[in-house]
Specification:
There is one protein chain. The protein is mostly helical. It has a single domain, classed as Up-down Bundle (Ferritin). It contains five helices and no strands. The longest helix is centred in the C-terminal third of the chain and has 29 residues. The chain is elongated. The mean pLDDT is 88.
Length: 146
């Protein structure tokens, strides 16, 4: 495998590092223990992907990125601006949805070794975390007019 593959894995790694940092920020805002448990589970799923992707990069003799890059910093700044626990969860849900769309789109353009990890690890986990946060947001967001 080539360094090109390491670069592909590093781009996914930046996304996952950003997700972990966003969950850290959101967890600081939560007071409800059930919400903390659900968000903690999502955070853990992203942290496990960080480890997996770092291993992939290292196995390719690449240097794993250590931070979330410029957009990761922006995402964390946005998450830190959430004024309520519900706002923080809404921002997480939006980020999860955007990440899922990006990952699905990557299926068509990444090389086979990267596609294998994308389909076996990243996408299943991303679908799960998106569903968890979406469900949580629906449970805590009042329906207008009711």
């Amino acid at each position: 495998m080539s360094s090109e593959y390491a670069n592909e894995f590093n781009e996914f790694l930046e996304d996952e590092i950003s997700a972990v940092k966003s969950y850290d920020s959101a967890l600081d805002k939560q007071v409800n223990s059930e919400h903390k448990d659900a968000l903690g589970e999502c955070r853990q799923a992203h942290a496990e992907l960080v480890k997996k992707l770092r291993t992939c990069v290292t196995q390719l003799s690449g240097e794993p990125r250590k931070d979330a890059g410029i957009f990761g910093g922006f995402n964390v700044a946005v998450e830190n601006s959430a004024s309520t626990p519900t706002d923080a969860i809404a921002l997480l849900e939006q980020a999860e949805a955007e990440r899922l769309v990006r990952y699905e789109a990557q299926r068509k353009i990444v090389p086979p070794p990267v596609l294998s990890v994308l389909e076996s690890d990243l996408l299943p986990s991303q679908h799960k975390t998106h569903l968890m946060v979406s469900t949580l947001l629906k449970e805590i967001t009042p329906i207008p007019g009711q």
